[in-house]
Amino acid sequence: MEPASLLPSIIFAGLVRVMLMLYGLWHDANFTVKYTDVDYYVFTDAASHVIHGESPYSRATYRYTPLLAWALIPNIYVHQCFGKVIFIVCDILAAVLIHKILRSQSCSAQSSVFCAQLWLFNPITITVSTRGNAESVMSVLVLIALHYFTKNTTLQSLVVASVTYAISVHVKIFPATYAVAIYFYVNSKYFNHQPVFSVMPNRYRVLAGVIGATTFAVLTGLCYLMYGYEFLHETYLYHVIRQDTRHNFSAYFYLFYLLPDVSWLSAAVFVPQLFLILLSSYHFYEDLIFTCFINTFVFVTFNKVCTSQYFLWYLTILPLIVPYLHMSLKRVICLTSLWFLCQVLWLTPAYQLEFEGKDTFLFIWIASLVFFAVNVFIIGNIVQFYDFRPNVERKSREMSEIGTVIREIWQKRKHL
Fold it and tell me: Where in or outside the cell is it found (predicted)?
């Protein structure tokens, strides 16, 4: 049975995550600097407030949907690691979805398994879930939505995709950057015989829009009825006006540090971000997965706040485009190395600022600018070397160069 070829990797990756979760318990009990993410303590405290009939927003810095606090109530009643187990399960499920999506697009079994392994054994994804960060939940929601949007042309798939997409936007607002591309894509998918680009609504667009908007409105409305404006502010509005001048990879952070009282800056920095996302949505919408990847990468790179957990938003979709990159292995290694080295360059002065009290803001900003430039360069390379075709034509694609490398690596691995 073909899916079993991924099973050994799933078991091993799951064991690695469980071992790290258990290590985290020991580490937290013996070291001042905790292994567990500070956000996990925030989630747990918010769940405790819910148990006592209070608002989860009674916990300072809880700025998420109340659904998360409700889901982690077992952290109080069952075990403190309950939430981590959920996040680890979602982390593994994301790999299964990556494999499933690629196979549904007739990507070879070897390449599909390899791309799922890129997720399973990515040190970033492993660390994020085992430390108790909830980003793996978002990964699953986004992947389910993409799977059903691109799976086939049945109304059932469209309904499931629209509902899941709306839930993902309710949980975190960044998938809203896919909305325009999805609107265009639904027309392209269901009327792929039409050569003319159209912005006019049709029954499929209306159906997807109504279902998505209704799902979002119901979830958000219920939360608003329970927690009022505080919910809207902490879950959504805060992230629009947020300015982080310390733990921030954004190229804008130093500008906000020097000019904290200039209110129009927050709105101004959205302009290039919005322009590029709309441009991408128009040019690439026929390949929805690629468009969502580019939109997410652009959103994170050009955002006024950028932390390491944001990287997982586009890393979730990256394995889905890897088989279609006409990029040499040498170039892939160089770009990946640049990406990691820039983070090391940033983390060095950031550590000196946070733990040694040194004034390294200027050096952090320079490192942020370098990281920004490298990310823009990587985006340009991906756009240049990607084998772009509409999703409906993916089944007839030839394997790209990097895809061929994947197949060769897999074949050599089997002979070891």
Answer: Endoplasmic reticulum membrane
Return d(Cα 202, Cα 51) in angstroms, integer.
Answer: 46
Q: Are 86 and 47 in contact (CB under 8 A)?
A: no
Burial level of 398, CB count in 10 A (0-12/13-18/19+)? exposed
Say which amino acid occupies 37. D
Rounded distance, CA 22 to CA 18, Å?
6
Residues 6+ apart with CB under 8 A from 148: 157, 158, 160, 161, 164
Element (H or E) spanning 39, and its range? helix 38-51
pLDDT, one tens digit per residue, over 4-45 is 489 999 999 999 999 999 999 999 999 988 999 999 999 999
How far, in Å, CA of 282 to CA of 197, rounded? 10
* Residue of 29, 17, 43 whose CA lies nearest to 124: 17
- Between the alpha carbon of residue 263 and those of residues 45, 123, 248, the distances in Å are 32, 38, 19
302-314, pLDDT tens digit by residue?
999 998 889 999 9
Residue 300 contacts residue 311 (beta carbons within 8 Å): yes
Our CA angle for 341, 319, 293, nearest 5°, is 85
Domain that holds residue 180: 136-241
Q: Is residue 20 part of a domain?
A: no
Residue with tokens 């979730």: 316
Q: Which residue has the tokens 């998918």?
A: 189
Residues 237 and 332 in one domain: no
Instruction: Give yes or no: residues 225 and 257 share one domain.
Output: no
Query: HEC profile for 340-367?
Result: HHHHHHHHHHHHHHHHHCCCCHHHHHHH
Q: Which residues in 234-348 belong to E strands, given as ranges?
A: none
The whole-number pLDDT of residue 357 equals 82
The answer to the question of residue 142 being in a domain is yes
Last residue of a domain, one of 241, 258, 278: 241
Segment 47-89, tens digit of pLDDT: 999 999 999 999 999 999 999 999 999 999 999 999 999 999 9
Could you tell me if 288 and 180 lie in one domain?
no
Q: Say if residue 384 is in the same domain as residue 401.
A: yes
**Last residue of one domain, picked from the residues 241, 268, 295:** 241
Tally of domains within the chain: 2
Percent composition of the chain: helix, strand, coil (DSSP 3-state, to 5): 75, 0, 25
Instruction: Tell me the DSSP string of 243-262.
Output: --SSS---TTHHHHHH-TT-
Residues 261, 141: one domain? Answer: no
323, part of any domain: yes
pLDDT at 233 over 70: yes
